[in-house]
Specification:
The protein has 465 residues and is of the alpha+beta class. The strands form five sheets. Strands 12-11-10-7-13 form a five-stranded antiparallel β-sheet. Strand 4 and strand 5 form a beta hairpin.
Length: 465
Protein backbone atom coordinates (compact mmCIF):
# COMPACT_ATOMS: atom_id res chain seq x y z
CA UNK A 1 0.00 0.00 0.00
CA UNK A 2 1.25 3.57 -0.76
CA UNK A 3 0.53 6.69 1.26
CA UNK A 4 -2.68 7.26 -0.66
CA UNK A 5 -3.97 3.82 0.41
CA UNK A 6 -3.82 2.34 -3.13
CA UNK A 7 -2.30 -1.07 -3.94
CA UNK A 8 1.07 -1.46 -5.73
CA UNK A 9 2.16 -4.46 -7.77
CA UNK A 10 5.42 -6.25 -7.02
CA UNK A 11 7.04 -5.27 -10.35
CA UNK A 12 6.39 -1.61 -9.52
CA UNK A 13 8.04 -2.05 -6.17
CA UNK A 14 11.09 -3.69 -7.74
CA UNK A 15 11.40 -0.86 -10.30
CA UNK A 16 11.29 1.70 -7.53
CA UNK A 17 14.10 -0.10 -5.76
CA UNK A 18 16.21 -0.14 -8.94
CA UNK A 19 15.55 3.54 -9.56
CA UNK A 20 16.52 4.41 -6.00
CA UNK A 21 19.80 2.50 -6.35
CA UNK A 22 20.53 4.20 -9.68
CA UNK A 23 19.89 7.64 -8.26
CA UNK A 24 22.31 6.95 -5.40
CA UNK A 25 25.08 6.03 -7.90
CA UNK A 26 24.37 9.08 -10.08
CA UNK A 27 24.40 11.48 -7.13
CA UNK A 28 27.73 10.07 -6.06
CA UNK A 29 29.31 10.79 -9.49
CA UNK A 30 27.60 14.17 -9.70
CA UNK A 31 29.27 15.20 -6.48
CA UNK A 32 32.70 14.29 -7.93
CA UNK A 33 32.04 16.14 -11.23
CA UNK A 34 30.67 19.14 -9.40
CA UNK A 35 33.93 19.49 -7.49
CA UNK A 36 35.94 19.37 -10.76
CA UNK A 37 33.64 21.88 -12.46
CA UNK A 38 33.91 24.29 -9.56
CA UNK A 39 37.70 24.25 -9.95
CA UNK A 40 37.45 24.92 -13.69
CA UNK A 41 35.00 27.77 -13.16
CA UNK A 42 37.31 29.32 -10.64
CA UNK A 43 40.21 29.34 -13.13
CA UNK A 44 37.89 30.64 -15.87
CA UNK A 45 36.72 33.51 -13.72
CA UNK A 46 40.32 34.37 -12.91
CA UNK A 47 41.22 34.48 -16.66
CA UNK A 48 38.11 36.58 -17.43
CA UNK A 49 38.96 39.00 -14.66
CA UNK A 50 42.46 39.38 -16.05
CA UNK A 51 41.05 40.06 -19.53
CA UNK A 52 38.80 42.81 -18.20
CA UNK A 53 41.69 44.48 -16.46
CA UNK A 54 43.65 44.42 -19.67
CA UNK A 55 40.69 45.87 -21.56
CA UNK A 56 40.33 48.76 -19.13
CA UNK A 57 43.99 49.58 -19.43
CA UNK A 58 43.81 49.62 -23.22
CA UNK A 59 40.36 51.23 -23.45
CA UNK A 60 41.72 54.37 -25.14
CA UNK A 61 43.96 52.42 -27.52
CA UNK A 62 41.85 51.76 -30.65
CA UNK A 63 43.81 48.80 -31.79
CA UNK A 64 43.60 47.16 -28.40
CA UNK A 65 39.90 47.96 -28.13
CA UNK A 66 39.19 46.37 -31.40
CA UNK A 67 41.15 43.29 -30.39
CA UNK A 68 39.11 42.95 -27.17
CA UNK A 69 35.83 43.30 -28.94
CA UNK A 70 36.84 40.75 -31.48
CA UNK A 71 37.79 38.35 -28.71
CA UNK A 72 34.44 38.83 -26.94
CA UNK A 73 32.45 38.19 -30.09
CA UNK A 74 34.45 35.09 -30.79
CA UNK A 75 33.99 33.88 -27.29
CA UNK A 76 30.22 34.41 -27.38
CA UNK A 77 29.99 32.53 -30.62
CA UNK A 78 31.95 29.61 -29.19
CA UNK A 79 29.78 29.45 -26.05
CA UNK A 80 26.60 29.55 -28.10
CA UNK A 81 27.74 26.72 -30.26
CA UNK A 82 28.73 24.69 -27.19
CA UNK A 83 25.29 25.08 -25.62
CA UNK A 84 23.57 23.90 -28.80
CA UNK A 85 25.80 20.89 -28.95
CA UNK A 86 25.01 19.93 -25.37
CA UNK A 87 21.26 20.20 -25.94
CA UNK A 88 21.47 18.03 -29.02
CA UNK A 89 23.54 15.48 -27.10
CA UNK A 90 20.99 15.25 -24.25
CA UNK A 91 18.14 14.68 -26.65
CA UNK A 92 19.89 12.08 -28.75
CA UNK A 93 22.12 10.26 -26.27
CA UNK A 94 20.02 10.39 -22.98
CA UNK A 95 22.75 12.29 -21.13
CA UNK A 96 21.96 13.82 -17.74
CA UNK A 97 22.95 17.39 -16.88
CA UNK A 98 23.29 19.01 -13.54
CA UNK A 99 22.58 22.74 -13.46
CA UNK A 100 25.31 24.81 -11.90
CA UNK A 101 25.58 28.52 -11.07
CA UNK A 102 26.08 29.45 -14.74
CA UNK A 103 24.02 26.55 -16.19
CA UNK A 104 27.16 24.70 -17.29
CA UNK A 105 26.16 21.09 -18.03
CA UNK A 106 27.70 17.97 -16.48
CA UNK A 107 27.54 14.74 -18.39
CA UNK A 108 27.05 11.38 -16.57
CA UNK A 109 27.42 8.12 -18.40
CA UNK A 110 25.05 5.57 -16.77
CA UNK A 111 26.62 2.73 -18.63
CA UNK A 112 29.58 2.84 -16.25
CA UNK A 113 27.42 2.19 -13.13
CA UNK A 114 27.77 -1.33 -11.75
CA UNK A 115 25.37 -3.02 -9.26
CA UNK A 116 26.64 -5.27 -6.50
CA UNK A 117 25.24 -8.78 -6.65
CA UNK A 118 23.05 -9.82 -3.64
CA UNK A 119 23.59 -13.48 -2.86
CA UNK A 120 20.85 -13.44 -0.18
CA UNK A 121 18.26 -11.58 -2.14
CA UNK A 122 14.82 -11.25 -0.58
CA UNK A 123 12.04 -12.82 -2.60
CA UNK A 124 9.62 -9.91 -2.44
CA UNK A 125 7.11 -11.75 -4.60
CA UNK A 126 6.92 -14.60 -2.12
CA UNK A 127 6.66 -12.24 0.86
CA UNK A 128 3.88 -10.23 -0.71
CA UNK A 129 2.04 -13.41 -1.75
CA UNK A 130 2.27 -14.97 1.71
CA UNK A 131 1.11 -11.83 3.49
CA UNK A 132 -1.48 -10.66 1.02
CA UNK A 133 -4.31 -12.45 2.93
CA UNK A 134 -3.06 -11.75 6.50
CA UNK A 135 -5.62 -9.85 8.57
CA UNK A 136 -4.56 -8.65 12.01
CA UNK A 137 -6.94 -7.17 14.60
CA UNK A 138 -6.94 -6.00 18.19
CA UNK A 139 -9.88 -6.02 20.58
CA UNK A 140 -10.19 -3.82 23.67
CA UNK A 141 -12.17 -5.55 26.44
CA UNK A 142 -13.36 -4.78 29.95
CA UNK A 143 -15.03 -7.67 31.77
CA UNK A 144 -15.52 -9.50 35.10
CA UNK A 145 -13.53 -12.68 35.66
CA UNK A 146 -13.23 -15.26 38.42
CA UNK A 147 -10.16 -15.34 40.66
CA UNK A 148 -9.38 -19.02 41.39
CA UNK A 149 -9.09 -19.82 45.08
CA UNK A 150 -5.91 -21.22 46.62
CA UNK A 151 -5.77 -24.59 48.41
CA UNK A 152 -3.74 -24.86 51.61
CA UNK A 153 -2.73 -28.30 52.94
CA UNK A 154 -2.13 -28.85 56.67
CA UNK A 155 -0.60 -32.01 58.15
CA UNK A 156 -2.87 -33.49 60.83
CA UNK A 157 -1.88 -36.24 63.30
CA UNK A 158 -5.54 -36.82 64.19
CA UNK A 159 -6.28 -38.32 60.76
CA UNK A 160 -5.28 -41.54 59.09
CA UNK A 161 -2.19 -41.29 56.90
CA UNK A 162 -2.94 -39.62 53.55
CA UNK A 163 -6.57 -39.14 54.53
CA UNK A 164 -7.85 -35.69 53.62
CA UNK A 165 -10.59 -33.66 55.29
CA UNK A 166 -11.70 -30.25 54.05
CA UNK A 167 -12.04 -27.93 57.05
CA UNK A 168 -12.84 -24.85 54.94
CA UNK A 169 -14.42 -24.81 51.52
CA UNK A 170 -12.73 -22.55 48.99
CA UNK A 171 -14.66 -20.03 46.91
CA UNK A 172 -13.56 -18.09 43.83
CA UNK A 173 -13.26 -14.34 43.92
CA UNK A 174 -14.12 -11.77 41.23
CA UNK A 175 -12.11 -9.09 39.45
CA UNK A 176 -12.62 -6.54 36.70
CA UNK A 177 -10.03 -6.94 33.92
CA UNK A 178 -9.11 -4.43 31.22
CA UNK A 179 -7.09 -5.99 28.38
CA UNK A 180 -6.21 -5.89 24.69
CA UNK A 181 -6.56 -9.13 22.73
CA UNK A 182 -4.66 -9.68 19.48
CA UNK A 183 -5.95 -11.83 16.62
CA UNK A 184 -4.48 -12.99 13.31
CA UNK A 185 -6.83 -14.27 10.63
CA UNK A 186 -9.48 -14.72 13.34
CA UNK A 187 -7.22 -16.79 15.62
CA UNK A 188 -6.33 -15.54 19.10
CA UNK A 189 -2.64 -14.68 19.48
CA UNK A 190 -2.13 -13.04 22.87
CA UNK A 191 -3.67 -10.92 25.56
CA UNK A 192 -2.07 -7.95 27.28
CA UNK A 193 -3.59 -7.08 30.65
CA UNK A 194 -3.77 -3.33 31.17
CA UNK A 195 -5.47 -3.19 34.58
CA UNK A 196 -7.00 -5.43 37.27
CA UNK A 197 -9.47 -4.40 39.99
CA UNK A 198 -10.53 -6.93 42.68
CA UNK A 199 -14.26 -6.97 43.36
CA UNK A 200 -14.54 -9.99 45.71
CA UNK A 201 -11.54 -11.60 47.41
CA UNK A 202 -11.23 -15.40 46.99
CA UNK A 203 -11.50 -17.65 50.05
CA UNK A 204 -8.78 -20.26 50.56
CA UNK A 205 -9.63 -23.95 50.70
CA UNK A 206 -8.09 -25.58 53.80
CA UNK A 207 -7.43 -29.32 53.58
CA UNK A 208 -6.10 -31.39 56.49
CA UNK A 209 -3.91 -34.30 55.43
CA UNK A 210 -3.52 -37.18 57.89
CA UNK A 211 -0.17 -38.48 59.12
CA UNK A 212 -1.13 -41.00 61.86
CA UNK A 213 0.15 -44.53 61.40
CA UNK A 214 -1.84 -45.70 64.45
CA UNK A 215 -5.18 -44.56 63.05
CA UNK A 216 -4.30 -46.07 59.69
CA UNK A 217 -3.42 -49.43 61.23
CA UNK A 218 -6.66 -49.71 63.22
CA UNK A 219 -8.86 -47.96 60.62
CA UNK A 220 -10.39 -45.59 63.17
CA UNK A 221 -10.80 -41.88 63.80
CA UNK A 222 -10.98 -39.76 66.91
CA UNK A 223 -14.32 -40.39 68.60
CA UNK A 224 -14.49 -44.03 67.48
CA UNK A 225 -14.67 -47.05 69.78
CA UNK A 226 -11.63 -49.18 70.61
CA UNK A 227 -11.42 -52.32 72.73
CA UNK A 228 -8.89 -53.48 75.30
CA UNK A 229 -7.38 -56.88 74.57
CA UNK A 230 -6.51 -57.52 78.21
CA UNK A 231 -7.42 -56.09 81.56
CA UNK A 232 -5.69 -52.73 81.89
CA UNK A 233 -5.50 -49.60 84.03
CA UNK A 234 -6.88 -46.18 83.17
CA UNK A 235 -4.34 -43.55 84.32
CA UNK A 236 -4.52 -39.79 84.80
CA UNK A 237 -1.52 -39.14 82.51
CA UNK A 238 0.36 -40.83 79.69
CA UNK A 239 2.85 -42.60 81.97
CA UNK A 240 3.20 -45.85 83.88
CA UNK A 241 3.54 -43.72 87.00
CA UNK A 242 0.23 -41.98 86.41
CA UNK A 243 -2.47 -42.21 89.05
CA UNK A 244 -4.78 -45.23 88.61
CA UNK A 245 -8.30 -44.04 87.87
CA UNK A 246 -10.05 -47.34 87.07
CA UNK A 247 -9.54 -50.90 85.92
CA UNK A 248 -10.87 -51.81 82.50
CA UNK A 249 -11.80 -55.47 82.01
CA UNK A 250 -10.83 -57.47 78.97
CA UNK A 251 -12.92 -56.85 75.84
CA UNK A 252 -14.44 -53.67 77.28
CA UNK A 253 -14.75 -50.69 75.01
CA UNK A 254 -13.36 -47.17 75.32
CA UNK A 255 -13.87 -44.04 73.25
CA UNK A 256 -10.77 -42.61 71.55
CA UNK A 257 -10.24 -38.91 72.41
CA UNK A 258 -6.70 -38.12 71.19
CA UNK A 259 -3.28 -39.60 70.45
CA UNK A 260 -0.33 -39.13 72.81
CA UNK A 261 2.65 -40.99 71.38
CA UNK A 262 2.61 -44.55 72.78
CA UNK A 263 -0.54 -43.71 74.73
CA UNK A 264 -4.10 -42.82 73.84
CA UNK A 265 -6.43 -40.54 75.72
CA UNK A 266 -9.78 -42.34 76.08
CA UNK A 267 -13.12 -42.11 77.82
CA UNK A 268 -14.28 -45.05 79.94
CA UNK A 269 -17.57 -44.97 81.85
CA UNK A 270 -17.64 -41.19 81.48
CA UNK A 271 -14.11 -40.73 82.85
CA UNK A 272 -11.13 -39.47 80.79
CA UNK A 273 -7.71 -41.06 81.16
CA UNK A 274 -4.82 -42.70 79.32
CA UNK A 275 -4.14 -46.29 78.24
CA UNK A 276 -1.27 -47.75 76.23
CA UNK A 277 -1.68 -48.23 72.50
CA UNK A 278 -0.41 -51.81 72.82
CA UNK A 279 -3.54 -53.03 74.66
CA UNK A 280 -6.01 -51.51 72.17
CA UNK A 281 -7.62 -52.96 69.06
CA UNK A 282 -10.52 -52.20 66.74
CA UNK A 283 -13.38 -54.18 65.28
CA UNK A 284 -11.68 -53.91 61.87
CA UNK A 285 -8.48 -55.55 63.06
CA UNK A 286 -10.26 -57.97 65.45
CA UNK A 287 -13.75 -58.64 64.01
CA UNK A 288 -14.87 -60.95 66.86
CA UNK A 289 -14.12 -58.34 69.52
CA UNK A 290 -17.61 -56.78 69.35
CA UNK A 291 -19.30 -60.06 70.20
CA UNK A 292 -16.84 -60.70 73.00
CA UNK A 293 -17.47 -57.20 74.31
CA UNK A 294 -21.23 -57.73 74.26
CA UNK A 295 -21.11 -61.01 76.10
CA UNK A 296 -18.54 -59.74 78.60
CA UNK A 297 -20.92 -56.95 79.61
CA UNK A 298 -23.84 -59.34 79.86
CA UNK A 299 -21.98 -61.80 82.06
CA UNK A 300 -20.49 -58.97 84.09
CA UNK A 301 -23.98 -57.93 85.17
CA UNK A 302 -25.42 -61.43 85.44
CA UNK A 303 -25.20 -61.81 89.23
CA UNK A 304 -27.60 -62.74 91.97
CA UNK A 305 -28.29 -59.08 92.67
CA UNK A 306 -28.66 -58.08 89.03
CA UNK A 307 -31.55 -55.82 88.00
CA UNK A 308 -34.08 -57.74 85.94
CA UNK A 309 -36.30 -54.77 85.05
CA UNK A 310 -34.37 -54.16 81.83
CA UNK A 311 -33.40 -56.11 78.72
CA UNK A 312 -30.53 -58.56 79.01
CA UNK A 313 -28.96 -57.49 75.74
CA UNK A 314 -29.03 -61.03 74.40
CA UNK A 315 -29.96 -61.73 70.80
CA UNK A 316 -32.68 -64.07 69.62
CA UNK A 317 -29.89 -66.49 68.67
CA UNK A 318 -28.62 -66.30 72.27
CA UNK A 319 -32.08 -67.25 73.56
CA UNK A 320 -32.28 -70.19 71.16
CA UNK A 321 -28.82 -71.35 72.19
CA UNK A 322 -29.61 -71.04 75.91
CA UNK A 323 -32.97 -72.87 75.69
CA UNK A 324 -32.04 -75.63 73.25
CA UNK A 325 -30.59 -79.08 73.88
CA UNK A 326 -31.44 -79.23 77.57
CA UNK A 327 -31.83 -82.87 78.70
CA UNK A 328 -34.51 -81.97 81.25
CA UNK A 329 -36.65 -80.21 78.64
CA UNK A 330 -38.02 -83.56 77.55
CA UNK A 331 -41.03 -82.12 75.73
CA UNK A 332 -38.95 -79.36 74.08
CA UNK A 333 -41.41 -76.78 75.38
CA UNK A 334 -38.76 -74.21 76.28
CA UNK A 335 -36.72 -74.90 73.17
CA UNK A 336 -39.77 -74.34 70.95
CA UNK A 337 -40.68 -71.10 72.75
CA UNK A 338 -37.22 -69.52 72.94
CA UNK A 339 -38.30 -66.75 70.57
CA UNK A 340 -41.34 -65.97 72.74
CA UNK A 341 -39.06 -65.27 75.73
CA UNK A 342 -36.91 -62.98 73.53
CA UNK A 343 -40.02 -61.10 72.34
CA UNK A 344 -41.33 -60.28 75.84
CA UNK A 345 -37.92 -58.84 76.71
CA UNK A 346 -38.19 -56.41 73.82
CA UNK A 347 -41.86 -55.66 74.48
CA UNK A 348 -41.90 -55.06 78.25
CA UNK A 349 -38.22 -54.24 78.94
CA UNK A 350 -37.69 -57.17 81.31
CA UNK A 351 -34.94 -59.80 81.37
CA UNK A 352 -36.24 -62.65 79.18
CA UNK A 353 -34.03 -65.29 80.82
CA UNK A 354 -35.49 -64.26 84.20
CA UNK A 355 -39.01 -65.05 82.85
CA UNK A 356 -37.74 -68.38 81.43
CA UNK A 357 -36.07 -69.28 84.76
CA UNK A 358 -39.36 -68.68 86.61
CA UNK A 359 -41.13 -71.05 84.19
CA UNK A 360 -38.41 -73.72 84.56
CA UNK A 361 -38.57 -73.50 88.35
CA UNK A 362 -42.40 -73.57 88.54
CA UNK A 363 -43.03 -76.29 85.92
CA UNK A 364 -39.99 -78.55 86.34
CA UNK A 365 -38.89 -77.85 82.74
CA UNK A 366 -42.50 -78.05 81.56
CA UNK A 367 -43.25 -81.48 83.03
CA UNK A 368 -45.88 -80.44 85.62
CA UNK A 369 -49.54 -81.35 85.13
CA UNK A 370 -50.56 -77.64 84.97
CA UNK A 371 -47.86 -76.99 82.34
CA UNK A 372 -48.86 -79.94 80.21
CA UNK A 373 -52.67 -79.63 80.40
CA UNK A 374 -53.19 -75.87 80.83
CA UNK A 375 -50.08 -74.67 78.98
CA UNK A 376 -49.30 -72.67 82.08
CA UNK A 377 -45.55 -72.86 82.76
CA UNK A 378 -45.75 -70.55 85.80
CA UNK A 379 -48.60 -71.95 87.84
CA UNK A 380 -50.02 -68.48 87.43
CA UNK A 381 -53.17 -67.91 89.51
CA UNK A 382 -52.70 -71.07 91.59
CA UNK A 383 -53.37 -71.05 95.32
CA UNK A 384 -51.86 -73.46 97.76
CA UNK A 385 -55.18 -74.97 98.84
CA UNK A 386 -56.18 -75.91 95.24
CA UNK A 387 -53.34 -75.09 92.82
CA UNK A 388 -54.59 -76.95 89.76
CA UNK A 389 -58.15 -75.63 89.71
CA UNK A 390 -57.18 -72.11 90.67
CA UNK A 391 -54.43 -71.79 88.03
CA UNK A 392 -54.98 -70.10 84.64
CA UNK A 393 -55.34 -71.97 81.37
CA UNK A 394 -53.88 -70.60 78.11
CA UNK A 395 -54.45 -71.37 74.45
CA UNK A 396 -50.70 -71.43 73.83
CA UNK A 397 -47.53 -71.37 75.89
CA UNK A 398 -46.73 -68.08 74.25
CA UNK A 399 -49.89 -66.49 75.72
CA UNK A 400 -48.88 -67.52 79.23
CA UNK A 401 -45.31 -66.22 78.74
CA UNK A 402 -46.64 -62.84 77.55
CA UNK A 403 -49.07 -62.43 80.47
CA UNK A 404 -46.54 -63.24 83.19
CA UNK A 405 -43.94 -60.90 81.69
CA UNK A 406 -46.48 -58.05 81.60
CA UNK A 407 -47.57 -58.67 85.21
CA UNK A 408 -43.95 -58.60 86.38
CA UNK A 409 -43.27 -55.31 84.60
CA UNK A 410 -46.50 -53.66 85.69
CA UNK A 411 -46.80 -54.71 89.34
CA UNK A 412 -43.45 -56.14 90.59
CA UNK A 413 -40.41 -54.77 88.79
CA UNK A 414 -41.07 -51.03 88.31
CA UNK A 415 -42.14 -48.16 90.53
CA UNK A 416 -45.50 -46.55 89.90
CA UNK A 417 -45.76 -44.42 86.78
CA UNK A 418 -43.07 -46.23 84.81
CA UNK A 419 -44.05 -46.64 81.19
CA UNK A 420 -43.99 -50.32 80.37
CA UNK A 421 -45.80 -50.82 77.09
CA UNK A 422 -47.58 -48.43 74.76
CA UNK A 423 -49.54 -46.05 76.94
CA UNK A 424 -49.68 -48.48 79.85
CA UNK A 425 -47.92 -47.49 83.07
CA UNK A 426 -46.60 -49.51 86.00
CA UNK A 427 -48.75 -49.57 89.15
CA UNK A 428 -45.88 -50.54 91.46
CA UNK A 429 -48.46 -52.47 93.49
CA UNK A 430 -45.98 -55.16 94.59
CA UNK A 431 -42.75 -53.29 93.86
CA UNK A 432 -39.90 -53.76 96.36
CA UNK A 433 -36.99 -53.33 93.99
CA UNK A 434 -35.74 -54.52 90.59
CA UNK A 435 -33.82 -57.60 91.82
CA UNK A 436 -34.87 -61.24 91.99
CA UNK A 437 -34.84 -61.26 95.79
CA UNK A 438 -37.05 -58.13 95.84
CA UNK A 439 -39.63 -59.89 93.66
CA UNK A 440 -39.48 -62.94 95.97
CA UNK A 441 -40.97 -60.90 98.84
CA UNK A 442 -44.42 -60.47 97.28
CA UNK A 443 -44.47 -63.06 94.51
CA UNK A 444 -43.68 -66.40 96.23
CA UNK A 445 -44.06 -67.78 99.72
CA UNK A 446 -40.93 -69.92 99.26
CA UNK A 447 -38.06 -67.91 100.75
CA UNK A 448 -35.56 -69.85 98.60
CA UNK A 449 -37.44 -68.97 95.48
CA UNK A 450 -35.00 -66.21 94.43
CA UNK A 451 -31.95 -68.48 94.76
CA UNK A 452 -33.60 -71.26 92.78
CA UNK A 453 -34.59 -68.89 89.99
CA UNK A 454 -31.08 -67.35 89.81
CA UNK A 455 -29.54 -70.84 89.65
CA UNK A 456 -31.50 -71.53 86.45
CA UNK A 457 -30.58 -68.10 85.08
CA UNK A 458 -26.90 -68.75 85.72
CA UNK A 459 -27.18 -72.10 83.97
CA UNK A 460 -28.73 -70.50 80.89
CA UNK A 461 -26.13 -67.71 80.79
CA UNK A 462 -23.30 -70.22 80.91
CA UNK A 463 -24.71 -72.01 77.87
CA UNK A 464 -24.23 -68.84 75.85
CA UNK A 465 -20.55 -68.35 76.69
Amino acid sequence: MNNNGTSRQLPDVFKELQQSRLEQEINSKLNVNKAKTSEKKKKSREKLSQKREDAYRNMWNPNETREVLNFSVKKAAIVTMGICAVVLTVVSKNYIFASLEEDEPVKVDTSSIEFEANNNAINLTQIVTENASVVEAKDYIKEEREIPFETVYIEDTSLQKEEQVVSQEGTNGKEEVTAIKSYKNGEFLEENIIARTTIVEPVKSVVHTGTSEFLTTYKVHLGDVLYVTEETVLRDKASDTGLELAKIKQYYDVKLVELAGEWCKVTYNGQNGFVKNAVLTSSTVTPGIIEQNRKQKIFENAGENMSVNKASGLTVEDFKKALSNNPKDTNKIFEQNAEAFYNVEQKYNVNGLFIAAIGINESGWGTSNIALTKKNLFGYGAYDHDPYNSSYSFETYEDGIDLVAKVMAKHYLNPVGTKIYGEEMATGKYYNGPTISAVNIRYATDTEWAKKVFTYMEYLYNKIK
